[in-house]
């Protein structure tokens, strides 16, 4: 090894955040080193074998159209495709795939190894190197020093990780892998605040011992929709999932182990995710419920193992086995892996800039669970954004920060850097106030320009997008102007069971009716816009045109809200702004503003504890400063 080894970017950690960070940095032309404790588990699905889901699917779509890898591999290794919330509006439609766990990890490693400028190394990082208040590189467990302009820490649950099963615990980043020690202590000494969180995973079951006949089968969608813009269609044999439920007997068996539960015996100190609780937590918090839904999800095409979604637990082995066997269909179940909880260190993200660079050390970026988030998708999005910003800073270019009105990724990062995080952060559609504009179907229209700008999206793909945008504009113009006669249109309306017209109206106005769709006019017009075909280009145009017309009022209202908020977002706050000198804001607001150091008045307004009157006072001071 060269003792003077130097890279532009070093990524520490080979999970979903680390993989996306390494790929983005290298694809932007930066010499990149990905260091991971175990090179065989890069891109590992540590918990459920699935990608996407409610709001998380939006993150994957957004990442994909900017040049990320998760959506591509999710499509290539999928066992099942399903769009959730189909019965509701398009704002909350979310794609989810069941995936082959081993195939996903192998495909990610292949993507890493085939990327120019990117190198992999199996090491544990024991320390960071600093040059004053700047990062300089890392030190490995064997004492090697490797230098870099930027370091991205994407350590997942490995920082001082502690695995719990019953009253037994042992150090580990996850079951079967060693924990990472030393980094938390070193950063704490440099002034970083360190916290403790916990997460968990359920037992896995040998599929040969499951009675699927007594369970409800769940098939995938008949016409799968891919995550990635690179895939025109999906042609794969899908595997079913199954639904069963816990019983009162299950709950009694679980309660019998509470005296040996690390969660209730006070052994676990870290806070867990509220929206993905352990099964023992569920039966305490929802004591009135006699049963809870469980999903049996296949781990892969070439394995008998099934993931018991909804049964995350850290109870002792004997209790886990008895409780699982009390569930209908699992009476003869054999566990291949026990459920467990894991505690780990994280760094409250109030210590980050919106670029994910730390406030205390230049060139040091945090991404993923180290920031207190949960989920593969949240981690991947952070890894990508951290890498893009690291490379831009090395080049001396302006940072890349997505607005809340632009992307779910913008919502995610803005929430992290402006809110006190008390539990693992998980993305939901309800967190996005402009969610009708931030749909998964228009992710490319919103964000592909950035991927092209950074060299992560090819010109041919971007050119196709521009043509589609023009086709959408022309189609909307055409539909506003086209007014068929009553003799032409009324038979069409009667066919779709909606009331006929007495006066001539434009097709645009007719499309506002829920029952009416563009393809209903195929007999009147020969344009490809109206034809029900498999042409991907026109299907996407048709989808956007219909949504634009049917939801026009709601969309315009959200656009107006964004314009009103624009004044707040455009009003910058200097990093060294003296909040202590403003006596007319509350003490709580002053303390929070000093701690978070928001970059704009909009960010300041979203900090819990900063009231509208505090924001009004700040606006006066900032505007008077601008006039001076």
Average pLDDT, rounded to a whole number, is 93
Strand % is 15-25%
By DSSP, the count of extended strands is 20
CATH topology of the largest domain: FAD/NAD(P)-binding domain
- Main CATH class of the largest domain: Alpha Beta
Largest sheet: 7 strands, mixed
Q: Count of DSSP helices?
A: 19
**Total domain modules:** 4
The CATH architecture of the largest domain can be named as 3-Layer(bba) Sandwich
Ends: how far apart?
A: 57 Å
Q: Which regions contain 5 or more consecutive residues with pLDDT less than 50? A: none
What's the CATH superfamily of the largest domain, by name?
Answer: FAD/NAD(P)-binding domain
Determine the structural class based on helices, strands and strand pairing. alpha+beta
Shape descriptor reads globular
Residues in helix, %: 25-40%
Radius of gyration: 26 Å
Q: Which short descriptors sum up this protein?
A:
FAD/NAD(P)-binding domain, single chain, 6-stranded antiparallel β-sheet, 17% strand, globular, 7-stranded mixed β-sheet, Arc Repressor Mutant, subunit A, 628 residues, Elongation Factor Tu (Ef-tu), domain 3, alpha+beta
Short description:
With 628 residues, the protein is α+β, with helices and mostly antiparallel strands. The protein has helices spanning 16-27, 56-65, 70-76, 101-113, 183-189, 248-255, 279-285, 317-324, 376-395, 408-418, 443-453, 459-481, 486-495, 507-510, 536-550, 552-570, 587-596, 601-605, 612-627; strands spanning 6-12, 32-36, 50-52, 78-84, 94-99, 118-122, 125-131, 134-140, 145-153, 162-165, 168-171, 195-201, 204-206, 216-218, 241-245, 293-298, 305-309, 335-337, 340-346, 364-366.
